[in-house]
Write a structure and sequence with these properties.
Helix content: over 70%
Structural class: mainly alpha
Strand content: under 5%
Number of helices: 6
Largest sheet: none
Length: about 230
């Protein structure tokens, strides 16, 4: 009995470590997104370069989380809810890793844009970045706390990021039509906005997996519930 109790405590500790690593990885990805946009707004190439360098930390955490999941699967043989939790974690970690890659892409575009005169004062991009960071955090909170209602909120709020992207795209298209010299800079800003829109998509993916984890309801390819529009 003592051995079994020890194994149970060790198992619970591994699950806590897994949750903590996922939250740490998500937090680092959030910070990378925030700093990549800040580097552009404040015209700080050194900050963009720092973001690019931090990608190694995200990749390292991805490997650690994968290894921990496989270790728990092999040694503890989880069943039912715990098995679904670990299987979902293996999928979610890939979305977070992609968000880190997106921050790197934004940082690279920022370095290029900083070398040129500002096209316009950046207002909507920071707002879009804040919205993307918010639903990313909420999607991971929903996962760790097995909260399908919060996951539904994330999916519903993804449209805010989509709408901001459309708004930014239309505004920059106007700049390109009015002044051909603005085309290169405007396209790079559109790419950055599209990258932020993809952060929203990855967060919605995580939220969808939470709903499947808790309710067994797969909504990935079907019609989503009403988004409040």
């Amino acid at each position: 009995m003592p051995d079994r109790e020890h194994t149970s405590k060790h198992y619970e500790q591994q699950l806590r470590i897994l949750k903590d690593k996922l939250l740490l990885m998500s937090h680092k990805a959030e910070e990378m997104i925030a700093d990549s946009i800040r580097s552009l707004v404040d015209r700080r190439p050194s900050l963009a370069e720092d973001v690019i360098g931090r990608d190694d930390e995200i990749d390292k955490l991805e490997i650690e989380i994968d290894n921990l999941c496989y270790q728990v699967l092999a040694l503890e043989q989880p069943v039912a809810g715990d098995l679904r939790f670990i299987a979902t974690a293996l999928k979610i970690v890939k979305d977070i890793e992609r968000i880190g890659d997106i921050a790197v892409n934004i940082g690279e575009r920022s370095i290029e844009l900083i070398q040129e005169p500002e096209l316009k004062r950046l207002v909507d991009l920071p707002i879009m970045a804040n919205a993307a960071q918010k639903i990313l955090k909420e999607s991971l909170d929903a996962f760790v706390n097995s909260d399908p209602e919060l996951a539904e909120k994330v999916i519903s709020n993804d449209y805010i990021i989509d709408d901001l992207y459309e708004q930014i795209f239309r505004e920059l298209l106007t700049y390109m039509l009015e002044d051909p010299r603005a085309i290169s800079r405007a396209i790079k800003l559109i790419f950055i906005a599209k990258h932020l829109e993809r952060v929203g998509d990855h967060s919605a993916n995580i939220a969808e997996m939470v709903i499947f984890l808790v309710r067994g309801q797969d909504i990935r390819h079907g019609t989503r519930f009403d988004r409040g529009r």
